[in-house]
Structure formats: structure tokens, C-alpha cells
Amino acid sequence: xxxxxxxxxxxxxxxxxxxxxxxxxxxxxxxxxxxxxxxxxxxxxxxxxxxxxxxxxxxxxxxxxxxxxxxxxxxxxxxxxxxxxxxxxxxxxxxxxxxxxxxxxxxxxxxxxxxxxxxxxxxxxxxxxxxxxxxxxxxxxxxxxxxxxxxxxxxxxxxxxxxxxxxxxxxxxxxxxxxxxxxxxxxxxxxxxxxxxxxxxxxxxxxxxxxxxxxxxxxxxxxxxxxxxxxxxxxxxxxxxxxxxxxxxxxxxxxxxxxxxxxxxxxxxxxxxxxxxxxxxxxxxxxxxxxxxxxxxxxxxxxxxxxxxxxxxxxxxxxxxxxxxxxxxxxx
Amino acid sequence: xxxxxxxxxxxxxxxxxxxxxxxxxxxxxxxxxxxxxxxxxxxxxxxxxxxxxxxxxxxxxxxxxxxxxxxxxxxxxxxxxxxxxxxxxxxxxxxxxxxxxxxxxxxxxxxxxxxxxxxxxxxxxxxxxxxxxxxxxxxxxxxxxxxxxxxxxxxxxxxxxxxxxxxxxxxxxxxxxxxxxxxxxxxxxxxxxxxxxxxxxxxxxxxxxxxxxxxxxxxxxxxxxxxxxxxxxxxxxxxxxxxxxxxxxxxxxxxxxxxxxxxxxxxxxxxxxxxxxxx
Lengths: 332, 279
Prior knowledge:
The complex is a heterodimer.
Chain A: E1 4-13, E2 16-26, E3 31-35, H1 42-50, E4 57-62, E5 65-66, E6 77-80, H2 92-102, H3 107-120, H4 136-148, E7 154-158, H5 166-183, E8 186-191, H6 194-200, E9 203-208, E10 211-216, H7 218-223, H8 228-233, E11 240-243, E12 253-256, E13 261-264, E14 270-279, E15 283-290, E16 294-301, E17 311-316, E18 321-324
Parallel strand pairs in A: 3-8, 3-9, 6-7, 7-8
Antiparallel strand pairs in A: 1-2, 1-4, 4-5, 9-10, 11-12, 12-18, 13-17, 14-15, 14-17, 15-16
Helix pairs in contact in A: 2-3, 2-4, 3-4
Chain B: H1 8-36, H2 40-45, H3 59-66, H4 70-101, H5 107-115, H6 126-135, H7 142-166, H8 170-178, H9 183-194, H10 196-212, H11 215-220, H12 229-233, H13 244-274
Helix pairs in contact in B: 1-13, 3-13, 4-7, 4-10, 7-10, 8-9, 10-13
């Protein structure tokens, strides 16, 4: 109940190819996150799955059935949008009921499902309100509730947290994770924020320029990125990339994550000047301008006092250093 | 009380300018209404003074209601205006929705073609329109006027509404599609209520030229049964003698329906702006 298979899906808007042949398999109950920079085609892919866009070629199968020509309402999916997209003229309750009414669900069943969903998302006090009378976080919960009551095979989330403020984003993220655990439903989630991807996903699909760069669990992507793009995209602050030639290496580029660098005031591999220090309490980000390695970021756990202008030595953890070839792929 | 954004001299200045403009705009209207309540001698003797006990006379109104079937003319004007307005808004909004929502070959070209009417005055085609109406047997019917006015109003309506419809959230329409709403339901229930302020603007812009038009009623429907108010008022405009009392009274009466329609639409306009949309 709720598997998805995408076979060689391509999408072009006129001469512009947005999706260049996507193959993907999602098993039942999986939480899959599509992540990538803006314009990489992740939202378009989600829209193709939802049936809001027709693919130029290729097939989409939900539970083994080809849905390429099935209208969105008949695909057994529910979608949560970035802008909530609640019907402004309907109350919260009717917003949730509309899809079921259209599908001809009996009234008692609709009531039952709304009751369960609104309890799950603590929406009971707002059922008779209109969207205009709710806060952003409440509106997004209503939008999630509208998806839940449909009991779909597939939940689709299109950047659902992007319009919320930082604190609310963390809360709602948690709610979505709990929702997934409780419903055990298949969910596909699109985001450009790699933190959301890392915290929510069973499986991350990294997209870039209409192609899949890598598919894997969050830790797989973090520990063994397939190429320079994935290495740079996953992890925050971003991985440091250093020109191999400057370090006298054979590889084109050397990559090392900020957290895999240690600093010392006396000796180390790379001598550098502190450009800026960001104190976050739990950790400190140092920006070092190194003679050999150029501008690099170092992440130190805990508090570390470094004056801009002072000299520090940075040393990479050799076991956690990545080497990339001229084509951007990892060298092993 | 002075605040950061308001200063007394600036407020006075702004109000002075607005009041002057209001006075200039309202002056002819007030003059017409004022003089419609005066006797002929009063109108010519002191056109700028309000009616006094001596000059007060309802002769204009009695002439209007006595001569000619003015109630009927009013009805014609209203039927033509309301029907044209309805069709302009309905078809204009539908065309605008298609242009803004669907990607199809020739979309831009179609948009340009539909907007062309803004630049070309429809009156240039009067002879052809007349021939068309004669051929189809529509001369001296209100249908002829409604058709012409619908055609006249559509280009601007489509132009304005398609710009507004592009701003309606795509997510909202897509949410409707996923919930199984038909394209018509999406259009009537989700999109139209959100562009209501634009619809009110278009309605006002469309309504006034139709109500005031003299040209097409004169050419296409001059018969007694199909006369509109503006055409009916010409009855009192003679080559040698003009019955000013009656004309002014007829014009004063003609202001009323437009005023009522305008009040209705402008209230919609304000409600549309203030009601909380999504986001």
C-alpha cells in the first residue's frame, strides 16, 4: 500500500529540459526527501508524481499501476503546499472535508476522519474558523490535516516549512516526523534545506540540474558522498574544497568537512590567519585564510576564543578527507 | 497630534488639493441637479444660484414624466447595461483564466489579439456593425446593443483580469485539482472570489461608457421601444428650441442608477481588498 516507481521520466518546457531521465523506486512506508538547489527540478518531479504536470516521456507507477494518464484526484495522493493553499472561503473543517465530499465519501465517515486528524494535529478548537483567522503554523497544520483525512497512498510535501519562521519550522518538522511514524505512510518531501532532509528522511534523493546525483540514507550521503556536488550540498557548514595541485596531491580537488579539522596555535598542516569567528555557543565556526589551502571553514565543538588576525594551524583528519577526480567523482 | 508620518502643513496641503479636485469634479453635476429644480427663467436668470422659493419649479420633472415614456427608457438602459456588464465580466474572466492558467500554442498571440480592441475604437466599425445587424435582423432590438457593448468591453476586461489572475496562487488551484474539483469549480469557487476587486474595477470602467453612450442606441436601436435614457433625453433638444428644464431633469435622473451600481461595486471593491486572502 503506497509504493512508487518512476521510470525514465523526462520533462521539458519547450526547449528547456527540466528533468533529464529520472529513475526512482520508493517502497511502502518510506520517507523520501528530494533535495537540491533551486531550479534542480525537484518540485517539477513532485508535480509529475502528483499529476499536476504531464511528463514528456517516461512512466509513473503507484502501487504497480501506471498513473501517467490518471487525473490527480484519482491517484490516491495528497499534497501539502508551501503556501498552504487553503480555500479562503471555507472553514477549517470544510477545507478538510472538500476532497472527501468530491470523492463521494459518506458524511459519517468524513466526520470520523476529521475527528481523528484534528485530534492528531490539535486543530479541534479551530474547526469552525476560516484560514484568515489562523496563524501560519496553524494554517500549515490544517493543510497537513487536509492531506491526512484523505488517507492517501502517498503524501507529497512541497517545501511545507519554507513559509514558517525558524522556531515554528523546527516544531512542524517534528510533527511531520511523528506523523510519519504514526501513520506509517509513504511520504515524499521536497526541500532545498539539507537540514530538513537529514532530519526527516529515511532516504534522500539529491537532485541537480534535472538529474539524480545520489540516493541514500542521510548517513550514507554524509559519510560517503558519490561526488563533489553531494559532498558540498550535504553537511553544514559546507565542506571545504581545496585545489589538489596546491597541496601537491594527484587528485583534482581535496574535500574536508569543517568538523573534521582541528586547530592548534603552535603547529599543524596548514598555517592560516583567522578572518572571522562565529560563536554559536555549542560550537564555533572559524574562517581561516591559509597559505596553502586558501579560505577554509573550521568547526570546533564548544567555545574557542580566536581573535581575527591571529595565526592558527589547521590539521585535517586524514581518515575523513575526500579526494575528487577531474570529473567531480570521488576517488577511492 | 503630530506623529512621525504626519505633519499638519502636509495634511492641510493634501486636503486642499483633494478638496479643490472634488469641487471641480462635482461642479457640473451639482449645477445640473440644482438647475433641474428651477423654472426656465430661473435657469437663465441666475444659473449659479440654488433654487429659491421664487425660482423653484418641478416643471422639468413633470415634462419628463409626462412626455415620452421615460420609465421605459430607463428600463432599456438598465437592461442593456446590466446584461452587457454580466457578459463582459463572465466571458472576460473566462478568457483571462484560460490565458493566464493554461499553456498552449499561441497563448501570447491570442492574448494580444484579444487586447487589440483596447487600441482600436469600436466606432470605426459602425457601418459594418450596422450592416451585420440589418442582415441578422437585430436592428431596433436591445440584443444588438448588448452584443456591441459586450464586444466593446471585453478587451479591457481580459487585459486587466488576466494580469490579476496570474497573481492567484498556483498552489491553491493545484490543491483544488488534487481534491477533485473540476476546472469550472476551480474558476468559479476559488479564482473568481480572489479577483473580486479587479472584477469591481472592470465593472465600473465598463458600465459608465455603456450607460452614457448615445452613438449606438441612435444608430442601432432608435425605435420608441428600444430607446435608452441618453437617447430619450435628446427628445427635448430641438433645433430651435431646447427644453432645458426637461433635459436637466432627465440627466439628473440618469445619474441615479449609475450611482447605485457604483456604490454596490465600490463596496465589493473595498471588501475584496480588506478580506484576508491566503498566505
